[in-house]
Design goal:
The protein is of the alpha/beta class. The chain is about 35% helix and about 15% strand. The relative contact order is 0.12.
Length: about 250
Amino acid sequence: MSTDHDTKEIDMKRIGIIGSGAIGSGIARLAVAAGYEVLIANSRGPESLRGLIDELGTQAQAGDSREAIEFGEVPVLAVPLGAYEALPGEAFSGRTVLSTGNYYPHRDGRIARLDSLEVNTAELERELLPGAVVTKAFNNILFHHIPALAHSTPRTALAVYGDEDHAKKRVSAIVDDLGFEPVDGGTLAESWRAEPESGAYTPIYAADLDGFIADYLSDPGAPVTADRLRELLAASTRPDVAARQF
């Protein structure tokens, strides 16, 4: 007979991902490689995911957003802020959610409360998903550095943010399974430390900073240890969000 513990362990090997762009598909590939069953949803519908599902194989399937939310213990959100209003918000209630997103004005439009620093992106996401336990990870690393640095030696560290310890533990276990060293970055209020233009955003994973600035897509990436990431987070300064253009 299965115990509750056994059931939770099985659930942790299933993950639903909303968003099939570069970040969502990158996480899906690592999850499948780590033995997870994956269900992916996007705004265009399951048929649009046929190529990705074929690539991922029998451990993957396509579905809608609600199915992705209910598929595993921790749904992953890899969608723009503007897409939140189309999500079945009530389905997130009581669930730990892993958000990978950032505020990019060129894509999301200007959001006054973010520009004024009244709230940061994670805090706004928590408001947009009432009842959900929002966590943040994978938002400070470029999409092509995710496969390049997974299972690196030394292990590449990623910050995990959240207001509930149990939620951060769940998400940290996923980050670890996908090949990274999870670092507790603190609460959602502190998550600006790894936002765009902060001291712990994507350039920290560059193999060559000058080359990264010239052509970031050509940079192969380089590991950042947990100790180094903690130093960078501690020294990070809050970005001038109102001046952000990209």
